[in-house]
Write a structure and sequence with these properties.
- By secondary structure, this protein is of the alpha+beta class.
- Helix content is about 30%, strand content about 20%.
- It has 11 helices and 27 strands.
- Strands 4-11-8-9-6 form a 5-stranded mixed β-sheet, covered by helices on one side. Strands 16-25-21-23-18 form a 5-stranded mixed β-sheet. It has a 4-stranded mixed β-sheet with strand order 19-17-24-20.
- The longest helix is centred in the middle third of the chain and has 39 residues.
- GO terms for molecular function: endonuclease activity; hydrolase activity.
Length: about 425
């Protein structure tokens, strides 16, 4: 049998009949934070973590950007015990998220946050996961001042209905299952980060000739990009035409936001009519973003490696070459050595442009075609491995989200009644 939860502030849906509901304000003791005086440097010369909203990017806090001293604590800064649950209740960050975290060591925190030390009979991790699982609903309770500052009034927060399994053991079982899911996610995140670092190191060595692959020797040849082929321009595809048909298209903004070194999938699709005035791509083309917001990123490029009918949008400069391996170029022409040259050739301030004639003057060092292909194969194999791990990570996050929806509402029980 299920009973409907009373609607204190928002509806949490039906719950098992043996669960009870208490106001969130009664779950533990709530504390306000503060900022030690900036006029006394001695307050800020310690090793006690002082948490502010910028630190609230993880669910388990093990450190902070800023630190305060024991003197600051002795003269008024509140030091909270390990296990304190922290949440941001004021600031523009509430416009898009509702950060919640558990401090894994004693911390102090600023005035834009609240700290919760749960009472006996409540599992701290269960409370943490419930708050994380309902972050968007909690964010929906925020108000906005005349100055545009977002705020969740404490009196509103304290009245939020909090569902409670009948025993501490069941709370801990739910928290334990979600903690195991978190551990898997964290291990996958660390593995992905490690694989990315390995690939970054391989790129630095292989794309510069610092490390040579077995079987290859000889000097690399310095060439300008203009010597590798011819440059041409993409034709305009407006935003309204982006989904006008079923022919794949690459637009310049997607080079910055969607693609990395080479095109693997497509995000824009144009009609046959639009394609008649667009530039058709050929396998092996290198696509440079001809416009951008900063000189540091101008001219980011991707290799087009598919043998399919596809088109380039406007503000794309295309290098069409049969004298180099396109995958190698996709990796190499985004390295810091080449990016510095592109940055020096960018024109404009608010919007930066780079021309085909400027790109043609960029110099690089190139091995023989066979070595280019071997290097590109190693790096693309690394990409395949990273992509597989990222897919596994996405699946783990999806599974955890489903677990939260089921366990925190009692639809799935981990313990017999």
């Amino acid at each position: 049998m299920e009973v409907a939860a009373p609607n204190y502030v928002f509806d949490i849906g039906p719950l098992p009949s043996d669960w009870r509901i208490v106001p969130l304000g009664e779950v533990g003791r709530w504390y306000s934070g503060g900022t030690p005086s900036m006029k006394n440097p001695a307050y800020w010369q310690g090793d006690i973590p002082w948490v502010s909203p910028k630190d609230m990017k993880v669910s388990r806090l093990r450190d902070s950007v800023d630190h305060i001293s024991n003197l600051a604590v002795s003269e008024g800064a509140r030091l909270m015990p390990s296990g304190t649950i922290l949440m941001v209740i004021r600031g523009m960050i509430l416009a898009h998220s509702f950060p919640v975290a558990r401090a894994e060591l004693p911390v102090a925190f600023n005035q834009d946050m609240k700290g919760l030390v749960v009472h006996d009979g409540y599992a701290s991790n269960y409370v943490l996961y419930w708050l994380i699982g309902h972050a968007q609903k909690l964010r929906g309770l925020t108000t906005e001042s005349t100055h545009g500052t977002k705020r969740l009034p404490p009196e509103t927060l304290y009245r939020v209905p909090f569902p409670l399994p009948p025993t501490l053991a069941e709370q801990e079982a739910i928290a334990g299952a979600l903690s195991d899911a978190d551990a898997l996610i964290e291990s996958l995140e660390q593995l992905v980060a490690k694989k990315r670092q390995i690939k970054h190191g391989a790129m630095q060595q292989l794309l510069t000739g610092q490390k040579r692959l077995p079987g290859f020797s000889g000097e690399w040849e310095t060439k300008r990009l203009g010597e590798l082929g011819t440059f041409l321009k993409g034709s305009g595809v407006t935003k309204s035409q982006t989904f006008s048909g079923d022919l794949p298209c690459v637009r310049y903004g997607e080079i910055y936001t969607r693609h990395n070194d080479y095109v693997t999938t497509y995000f824009s699709w144009i009609s046959r009519e639009v394609a008649q005035t667009a530039t058709r791509l050929r396998r092996g083309d290198i696509l440079f973003a001809g416009s951008g917001e900063t000189k540091e990123e101008i001219g980011k490029c991707v290799a087009f490696i598919h043998d399919i009918e596809a088109y380039a949008g406007g503000d794309i400069v295309i290098l069409r070459t049969g004298k180099a391996d396109p995958l190698f170029l996709g990796f190499y022409l985004n390295t810091s050595e080449i990016a510095r040259q592109k940055a020096s050739l960018g024109q404009g301030d608010a919007v930066v442009h780079i021309s085909a004639s400027a790109l043609a003057t960029i110099q690089g060092r190139f091995p023989k075609l066979e070595e280019q292909q071997a290097i590109a194969a190693i790096l693309s194999d690394m990409d395949v491995e990273i992509a597989a791990l990222e897919a596994k990570l996405a699946k783990a996050r999806q599974v955890k989200q489903g677990m939260m929806q089921e366990l925190l509402t009692g639809r799935i029980r981990l313990m017999e009644k």
